[in-house]
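Q: For a teaching handout, I want to show students what a protein-ligand complex looks like in token form. Below are the inputs, and the small molecule is iron/sulfur cluster. Please produce the holo structure.
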Amino acid sequence: MEHKEEVLERIEAKGVSRRDFVKYCTLVTSVLGLAPSMVPRVAEAMAAKQRPTAIWLHFAECTGCSEALLRTTYPWIDEVVLEVLNVAYHETIMAPSGEAAEKSLHDAMTQYKGKYILICEGGIPMKDGGVYGKVGGKTMLDIAKAATKDALATICVGNCACSGGVQAAKPNPTGAVSVEKATGVKTININGCPPNPINIIATVVHYLLLGKLPALDAKGRPLFAYGMNIHDNCPRRAHYEAGEFVKKFGDEGAMKGWCLAEVGCKGPNTFNNCPQVMFNDGTNWPIGAGHPCIGCSEPNFWDEQSPFYQPI
Ligand code: SF4
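A: Here is the structure, written as tokens, with iron/sulfur cluster included.
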């Protein structure tokens, strides 16, 4: 509890009220599908003294998933992430560089061997022995194999780590694949391009709260977030049933918020909690803003869901 007070005081010192923190905990609780009475327990879990150690590695990707997490509308979420997790290594936010960074990774993997949660962002180039993706002279393939081997669990964040991502799209010149395919280690996949940050936090909170990772679907995605179909939960669904379709961006149907199926919506193929949670503090989501879903939380969506603006 003492630690919880410390966390709350630090957050307050950054100009964030306890009320906002509790509001965020309420959101995490609802994303996990837990009863509102669990909010205090989620808040306690997020501020617990026993924090799991995380090593966050970047492979072939754009760092958009880290950015989406750290630059949310909650300007203080980085503070909470660093409080919820003992982040021992994260190339985007850590201070060391060069050899010192290499040493940080080595030290973290040695000190927390068998106990750290490995979070991976990015696909793994496999062609020609993995030479098309290197960090500090080592191939991403070798780094991923070594890091997954001694991890307590491996969480893949974003479509690149989960299924290879944009660099794995045809013709896939570097032979990029998912972390699971490259290493043979079973991963938890927080899919999306980028994934909703709340689903990353909720997965970690689930572990803190219940001592285990959440139930997964056949694609390795947490069911609490990916167990529902976009089309079945879409606010435009009544227009689909009524045969009211946007024919062209900016037409009358678009103005009236009709269904986007004929301009390429992939909602019927896609599983995610976007309609419920939305992005940017629940402000909106692509379909809400009049853009068809491109199916970014489905594996290999760059190849399998494109052309994005043609009907399924
Ligand atoms: S906009 Fe997309 S997800 Fe929504 S009802 Fe139409 S096809 Fe389904």
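A: Two things your students might notice: The mean pLDDT is 90. The radius of gyration is 20 Å.
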